[in-house]
Amino acid sequence: MPSTEILDTPAERTEFSDAVYSMIGRALAVASRFEASCRALALLLGIRQSSPPGSFSLTRPEDLDLLISEIRKRQLFRQIESVVLHLNLPDEASRLFHAARNDRNFVAHELTMGIEESLQSGHQVSELKSDLALRVR
């Protein structure tokens, strides 16, 4: 029978594991909200610039569907670049957006790798909490 180790989750709940998973849940919520906000802003800017005045209509489902489809295909990097370009934001704003994107990517893709080690002691939980506080601000 094939190993199911890859699907294993920590067997027991402890005060430390509950605290860690609570922090991870909050961090994921903030990361998701950031990405959704970037998508929404890129969508609004896309509507403004998608076509000549009067040719795009929110009342035509096919116009809106096409625009949403195009926005969803883009990765967060491209959405941020689009927002920065359309709003002519300064380099500092671009750096801030991309720093937030990097932190979002860490939370979404790397944070839980090896998390079992962080569930062992209050000190490790405190370190994780400090790291997340810097990334999710």
What would you say about this model in short?
Helices cover 69% and strands 0% of the residues. By secondary structure, it is an all-alpha fold.
Topology:
Blueprint: H1 15-49, H2 61-73, H3 76-87, H4 91-110, H5 122-135
Structure description:
The chain is mainly α. It is built from five helices and no strands. The chain is elongated.
Taking pLDDT < 50 over at least 5 consecutive residues as the criterion, the unreliable ranges are none
- What's the gyration radius in Å? 20 Å
Given the C-alpha coordinates, what overall shape results? elongated
Total of DSSP H or I helical runs spanning 4+ residues = 5
Mean pLDDT: 80
Total count of strands: 0
Say what oligomer this is: single chain
Structural class: mainly alpha
Attribute tags:
about 140 residues; mainly alpha; elongated
